[in-house]
Sequence to fold (201 residues):
Amino acid sequence: MIKCSVYNKELVDWVRSNQKGISRAELTARLNKRFNTDFSVNVVSSFCRRCGFKSGVNAGQLKKGGTPWNKGKPHRTNSDYFFKKGHGGFKTKEVGAERFCSKDGYVIIKTKQPRTWRRKHVVVWEQHHGKIPQGHCIRFLDNDRTNCNIDNLVCIHRGANAVINHQNPANSDNPDVNHAIILTEQINHTIKNIDRYRSAI
Fold:
């Protein structure tokens, strides 16, 4: 099974226990109600695939021995059925649509047509504070990469971030403790830069 460590354990356990026998749309509705979240069906579906969860429900699959709905009907090739230039197909996502990226565990959001997607937490942070300063990145205080609430995001210098990742992990279950670690390493990084600058004078 694919690891799902980026998610809250309670949420993962709940999905594992409740996803059998229901559609992803129904699962999404119950999940959002249970945890007071606003995940889209696409995000929940991608999450389940990544974790190896199978509901056993496939409403669109033809049962063995069944007859296709279009059996005996003529195949249409009229050009009117093709998309006109400048118009996307029914699968084209609107700006603002979200999906879960299984490669790195982040939620991404469509910001521009036709195919511009960005990490949601970056978009949320920039909406509140402007462009991320050069050499900085955004961290999640609770380490949940799907929790893009602005109160859960902090901007940190990549140098301090590297120290945190390798020497002083901010990976506790307490966001306040993680925030304290991040602030400490930010201060240490700033002091080192000042000392380095003074020694070069």
